[in-house]
Automatic annotation (TrEMBL):
Belongs to the glycosyl hydrolase 3 family. This is beta-glucosidase. GO terms for molecular function: beta-glucosidase activity. It holds the Pfam family Fn3-like.
Length: 717
């Protein structure tokens, strides 16, 4: 603790300390100033540089100790320039891009006085019914860890005090991504094995990357609401991992301990939460200052205050509480637009392609579907600005005036009397290509936006089927914030581009992708299920004692991974659904591009290593096409025998690189304890001796194996 903080803490009254442990939601400016004068230590953004400075002035000049404010805001995928939603960013498999986008968001936000964001979300999400999957990086542990850490680096830079940095918050700690039934805020009951190996791992990574704060989640874990869980907040996060930043509660998460029925009243809730390890309560009311205060242990109170003041110090707020209003960034620049346009293209996933994409030089195009004219591309978390982008139709007209485009949406996002599929079909003749722009509007995903039916809403699937039967090449462009069930039309649509909610420049990126000005190379960060009944579904499932395989009449699709079970198990008694093919529609990691690539044999620098050892895995990849394009190489681990049933495959490394036509590039990956090991329930990393196989390739369905033997440590003499 710095001398300044020690001195402040020693001079603070109990009320002043408690004021520092609160963040209050956007009240109007007059209320805000009064609250600050009363000692509230953190506020939601007012929102402008001038308004922020006015609040900071109240804190610095009109409170006894003059402590500046943390100014928080959910800057999730951009402030003024909106980047693709986090789930889309995850599809890029590109940590450098994620870092750059976060740095852009930080620059824009800090220029307006925001110094604290509630991002990244690293909740491993295996249930697409849960609307918040849009806010995170999908179903894979490594992808969440790597991209979460990249986002933290982007927000925080090298120095939190820089005028371009903001403090990051890893959320929602923990296991929020596995709510029962996919219903937001619902119960989570997870084993310590999965907690350690799945849900906690990304948090460990972002804490190691220096995340300044962590947000507690709304859910229970094994019966205990996280806001009251001392084992998780203090035991694991603070004590075991040494996290010395700020633990912030989620909005009213402390007050919610009452309806959770673990606290009798707000007093009780506050005492429980701070006692468990919450340092800042979010969403409290002015009256709550002092709640439960008399029940708080004074050492815990001082610890929480020290954490909050230290963050303010690291942000340089004691020296520079104000920002320059003339330097506030209030709109996207041409550079920031170019960055998010490229990012939107890098986040797109080519789900299928029969060669219709990229489009050549069509003379007449029919643009249909609700996303043809919709300007709802920004996604679930945009704060005050730029609520709309342009539409695909307008962008197409601007970029390609030479094409005669007929725009006929045909259907809306919900079924409506105005739907006119017949009108669209009647218009098809005379067009060279039909582009059907479908999806979910952004309000269908995000917080408190769970769905039980994951098919395209309204009559969009019907529109696709009708157009696909009309005898003209068809391309489907799908914009959405979660994996969807597409089984009712996908086989009839041979060219499908998943573009998610791509942000400010999404329509421009979509047009770039359609014409091959940009190359799709993203990969799915979450499985697309065949049916809602399969959920939760994820590629890194365990094999079970009775895996369903190719034997018998069951259709094994190339999208499932399972290891053959014992030959004496009759097919009838294997793990499957009677009424559904095996595996998801599209698995995690699925996606292709316009360029084509060939893989050499993967090689290891050694075929036998000790449990502490490492090897280098290399594979040569050649661009066999005439286009410059990106390839994403994925490395999966298969542990053949372990003391705990291992996942059938687990992503342990990945890399994305651009290759010119004919170019060969050697990808190399370090494989050591971090890749080979798993967590025991006490948190230790265990690397067990035995045989593993590394599977290397562009997608789960097209990998090449390379075996590795891990030997036990030598016996002591
Ligand atoms: C969400 C958080 C968010 C907070 C503040 C809550 O409802 O769960 O993710 O950071 O609101 O807006």
């Amino acid at each position: 603790m710095s001398e300044r903080i020690a001195d402040l803490v020693s001079r603070m009254t109990a009320a002043e300390k408690l004021g520092q442990l609160q963040i209050i939601f956007r009240p109007n400016h007059d209320d805000a100033a009064a609250l600050v004068r009363r000692g509230i230590g953190s506020m939601f953004w007012p929102p402008s540089a001038t308004a922020t400075n006015a609040l900071q002035r109240e804190a610095v000049e009109n409170t006894r100790l003059g402590i500046p404010l943390l100014i928080g805001l959910d800057v999730i995928h951009g402030q003024r320039t909106i980047a693709p939603v986090p789930l889309a960013q995850a599809a890029s498999f590109d940590p450098a891009m994620v870092e750059e986008l976060a740095a852009l968001a930080a620059r824009e936000a800090r220029s307006g006085g925001v110094n604290w964001t509630f991002s990244p979300m690293v909740d491993v999400s295996r249930d697409p019914r849960w609307g918040r999957v849009v806010e995170g990086f999908g179903e894979d542990v490594l992808l969440n860890a790597a991209l979460g850490a990249a986002m933290v680096r982007g927000y925080q830079g090298d120095d939190l005090a820089a005028a371009t940095s903001i403090a990051a918050t890893a959320k929602h700690f923990v296991a929020y991504g596995q709510p029962e039934g996919g219903r937001d805020y619902n119960t989570v009951d997870v084993s310590d094995h999965r907690l350690r190996n799945v849900h906690l791992e990304p948090f460990r990574a972002v804490v190691a990357a220096g995340a300044a704060s962590v947000m507690a989640s709304f859910n229970t874990v094994a019966g205990v609401p996280v806001h009251a869980d001392r084992r998780l907040l203090t035991g694991i996060l603070k004590d075991e991992w040494g996290f010395d930043g700020v633990v912030v509660g989620d909005a009213d998460g402390v007050a919610n301990l009452v309806p959770h029925r673990v606290a009798t009243d707000l007093d009780d809730a506050v005492a429980l939460a701070y006692g468990a390890g919450i340092d800042i309560e979010m969403g409290g009311t002015p009256e709550s200052i002092g709640w439960g205060a008399e029940r708080l242990d004074s050492a815990r109170l001082d610890d929480a205050v020290r954490r909050v003041l230290s963050l303010k110090e690291r942000l340089g707020l004691f020296e520079t509480p104000y920002v320059d209003p003339d330097a506030e960034i209030t709109e996207p620049s041409s550079e920031s637009r170019a960055l998010v346009r490229a990012a939107a293209a890098r986040s797109a996933v080519l789900l299928r392609n029969d060669g219709t994409l990229p489009l050549g030089a069509p003379r007449r195009m029919l643009l249909t579907g609700p996303y043809a004219t919709s300007t709802d591309h920004l996604g679930a978390w945009t704060q005050y600005f730029g609520a709309r982008s342009v539409s695909i139709a307008d962008e197409l007209a601007a970029q390609h005036p030479e094409i005669v485009v007929t725009v006929l949406p045909g259907v809306g996002f919900v079924e409506d009397d105005a739907d006119d599929i017949g009108g669209v079909i009647a218009a098809v003749p005379g067009h060279d290509v039909v582009v059907v722009c479908v999806g979910e509007p952004s309000s269908f995903s995000g917080e408190a936006a769970s769905r039980s039916d994951l098919r395209l809403p309204g009559r969009q699937a019907e529109l696709i089927r009708a157009v696909a039967a009309a005898g003209v090449p068809v391309v489907v462009v799908m914009a959405n914030g979660r994996p969807l069930v597409v089984a009712d039309w996908i086989d009839q649509a041979p060219a499908v581009l998943e573009v998610w909610h791509g942000g400010t420049e999404a329509p421009a990126a979509i047009v770039d992708l359609l014409f091959g000005v940009a190359e799709p190379a993203g990969r799915l960060p979450m499985s697309f299920p065949r049916a809602v009944g399969q959920i939760p579904i994820h590629y890194d499932h365990e094999n079970t004692g009775r895996p369903a395989t190719t034997r018998g009449s069951l259709r094994l699709t190339t999208t499932d991974v399972a290891v053959e079970g014992p030959a004496n198990v009759a097919e009838k008694f294997t793990s499957k659904y009677l009424d559904l093919d095996l595996g998801p529609q599209f698995p995690f990691g699925h996606g292709s591009g316009y360029a084509t690539f060939a893989y050499g044999e993967p090689r290891l620098s050694a075929s036998v290593i000790g449990v502490d050892g490492s090897v280098e895995l290399t594979v040569e990849v050649t661009n066999t096409s005439t286009r410059t394009g990106d390839e994403v190489v994925q490395v999966f681990l298969e542990d053949l025998v372990a003391s705990v049933a291992p996942p059938v495959r687990r992503l342990v490394a990945f890399a994305r690189r651009t290759l010119a036509p004919g170019e060969t590039s050697t990808f190399s990956f370090a494989i050591g304890p971090a890749q080979l090991g798993f967590r025991l329930t006490d948190g230790t990393l265990a690397v067990e001796p035995g045989n593993v196989v590394l599977h290397v390739g562009p997608t789960l369905a097209a990998t090449r194996p390379v075996p590795l033997r891990v030997t036990p440590p030598p016996l002591p003499h």
